[in-house]
Amino acid sequence: MSGTVSVVTATTRATIGTNAHINDLPGTPDTRQSVLVAAADQFHLLLVSGALGAGAVGVGVGVTVGVIDITTEAKIDTGAVVNAAKDVSVVAGGNEAMISVAVTLAGGAVGVAGAVGVFVMHVATHADTGDFVTIPRGATTA
After folding, report:
1. Spatial contact of 42 and 95, defined as CB atoms under 8 Å apart
2. Which residues contact 28 (CB under 8 A, 6 or more apart)?
């Protein structure tokens, strides 16, 4: 019998904090001025197990288990004031790929082989603003 178990928790955050003031200086901003709050994750997982059973009664069992919890968040938090002459963007994205390979062989007068691959996943990707965020006129939002 052979097996692999992988438990992964990954969190990626990009945040303008609560009550923060961005580009709050006096004067005229450059017309190309933009604000970007971006969070991204890229996750790849390969699980491999192999088993060989031999003898009068050969039994081989291979098991792979992946437990994955991934959170990706971009946020302008509550009460923030974000000034920009052009764009204000809040974006979040993710790319997840998982592969499970479980190989078993059994030989003998009686040979039994089995393989199981299991993934338990929770993936959350969010881009948002909190309450009472101020983005003055002149900026476009995405």
Report:
1. yes
2. none
